[in-house]
Design goal:
By secondary structure, this protein is mainly beta. It is built from two helices and 17 strands. The strands form five sheets. It has a seven-stranded antiparallel beta sheet, with no helix packed on it. A four-stranded antiparallel beta sheet has the order 7-6-5-8, with no helix packed on it. Strand 14 and strand 15 form a beta hairpin.
Length: 275
């Protein structure tokens, strides 16, 4: 996976750096696994704007991803590696022995023709999904369940992974991408390997129009608004805006919003590292 840079023939090309798409093997998606996405423009069912700076963008279809990986005792062969406009990672189309085809998040290094499997008793090899209790300590994993049978919830974006640090009783201790260390039941499943497209963070749009293609509209800073539009607005000249806070008045930059009574607190051994 490489980053492609361009000659500065135009201002937009000067700072543009996008994926080379070397690993992509199919140009068109598998139609039975597509669903229509209706663009909302940030409006709810009554037409009221609930999320700002959303609108427009290229029309796209949703790829139905198999986050459960619950088709056990049936190996699958990787048919294609594809681009997914809805996520940063690449996806892989796999075909099971009985002919069923499904999309999965493609691990880094997976190849077309490779055979993968899922379930208890499966070898802890790249692309295989199995319970955390059967994965060797120190292994890098992704697509981790928080509850058995829930489906992958953690480490799903490009280049993400968690490390299985230890096991204590019914719990596995995972070191997550954020730096957080937490306990997860050993019966929860995870996929061996890291998520593909690790160079995604090196990409640069090069121009504002590329963000418009993604459905992102220009974002205004609070300090340039009027007082009735934002708590940091108003003032004579270029006022700094006072204490940084959100549009609804919640303090930003250091203010903790996590519920101190959250039920998941008892599973967190070490909180994520501060920036």
């Amino acid at each position: 996976m490489a980053i492609r840079k361009f000659k500065p023939t135009t201002p937009g090309q000067r700072n543009k750096a996008i994926s080379a798409f070397d690993e992509i093997t199919a140009k068109k998606p598998y139609k039975p696994l597509l669903e229509r996405i209706k663009s909302t423009g940030g409006r709810n069912n009554t037409g009221q704007m609930t999320v700002r700076y959303i609108g427009g963008g290229h029309r796209k279809m949703y790829r139905i991803i198999d986050f459960l990986r619950d088709k056990d005792n049936c190996s699958a062969t990787v048919r294609t590696i594809e681009y997914d406009p809805n996520r940063t990672a690449r996806i892989a189309l796999v075909e099971y022995e009985d002919g069923v085809k499904k999309y999965i998040i493609a691990p880094a290094g997976i190849k077309v023709g490779q055979v993968i499997a899922s379930g208890s008793g499966v070898a802890p090899e790249l692309g295989n999904a199995l319970p955390l209790g059967e994965i060797p300590v120190g292994t890098l994993v992704h697509n981790i369940e928080l509850r058995p049978g829930q489906g992958a919830a953690m480490a799903r974006s490009a280049g993400a992974f968690a490390q299985l640090a230890a096991r204590e009783g019914n719990y596995a201790i995972l070191r997550l991408p954020s730096g957080e260390t937490r306990m997860v039941l050993v019966s929860c499943r995870a996929t061996v390997g890291t998520v593909s497209n690790a160079d995604h963070n090196l990409e640069s749009s090069g121009k504002a129009g590329r963000n418009r293609w993604k459905g992102r509209r220009p974002h205004n800073r609070g300090v340039v608004m009027n007082p009735h539009d934002h708590p940091m607005g108003g003032g004579e000249g270029r006022a700094s805006g006072g204490h940084p806070r959100s549009r609804k008045g919640l303090p930003a930059k250091g203010y903790k919003t996590r519920n101190p009574k959250a039920t998941s607190n008892r599973f967190i051994i070490e909180r994520r590292k501060k920036k």
